[in-house]
Amino acid sequence: MKSCKKLNKTEIPEIPKIPKPILEAASNGKLVVFIGAGVSRLLGYPSWQNLAERYIEYLFQKGYLSYLEYEHLKKLDPRKLLSICKNFCEKKKIPEPSMDKLLKPKNIEKDVVNIYQLIYSWNVIYVTTNFDDELDKVAKRPLKELIIENDRSSFNSLPLETPNIEIISNPERISISHLYFSGNVIHLHGSVNSKKLILTISDYLYHYQNEKIQSFLDHLFAEFTVLFIGYGLEEYELLEFLVHKSQIHTSNYLKSKEKEIKHYLLYPLFSWEQAMLEFYQLYYENLKIELIPYKKDKKGYKQLYEVIKAWTPEIKNVVQPASYLEIFKLIDEVVK
Description:
Blueprint: H1 20-27, E1 31-35, H2 37-41, H3 48-61, H4 67-73, H5 78-92, H6 99-102, H7 115-120, E2 125-128, H8 134-139, H9 143-150, E3 167-168, E4 185-187, H10 201-209, H11 211-223, E5 225-229, H12 236-257, E6 263-269, H13 274-285, E7 289-295, H14 303-318, H15 325-335
Parallel strand pairs: 1-2, 1-5, 2-4, 3-4, 5-6, 6-7
Helix pairs in contact: 1-14, 3-5, 11-12
């Protein structure tokens, strides 16, 4: 029987150190940052639970649901509730609420408003499961502006001209080639700027059975180091689903390449949760994900901003942007 390794029980830091493999991946053009709802929530965007509540509130206020139905339905898991609401609208031929209205930000935290500017100034590859376009807005700005705005000392490793980046809003357009140019923003589930959104449970099942998406995820998790930022309890099921889907296909590939690439998850905890950290680590170890815990006692979820702000100069100091030259290497591998 395999014994569990003894895990570190030192105090959880407010600002964790950047794991060496993340810096190495950044220096090799092999770092992908996966951005979840926790980042956009700092800008006032709704969580999945809030989004589902806004949807059902719309149906209730418009008179399509009784109070009894409204009270019972809103207790459901947010993804189930969103699925029911959308299917209900389609079946009853009810106009759906616009995603712009459902996603309208409230209570914006002004002291963390530039979190996306900081993350994007890393100049790596970005994948997001969020529907909002905050990252897209930043990506459309000249990189030179972002560097000057966030850290005037870091000109040595980044190009100063506006990169020829792509924003992939429609999930049907996603391809492996989008992973080979730094600055690209890939909306895995679509965005407000696309007609296609992966919202319901049936959408998820269909989306992740698509061979093109499977190939994209296979390649992503086999070839790149991934850092998950802003993934909370509401999205752990999604995280488990997409990583497991990939691992089913990539396990033999990894053996053939004789390498193992680690993936990481920034993980907020209160100090009193430290006793549970070992069990969380063991759980995510099965997904080939290593937790990077940080303490949120003082600032709550805004502590994520402090971590990103502290990490930015160090990552920008080593980053080596991926370029289209990598595509030719990919083509050579496929041909072989």
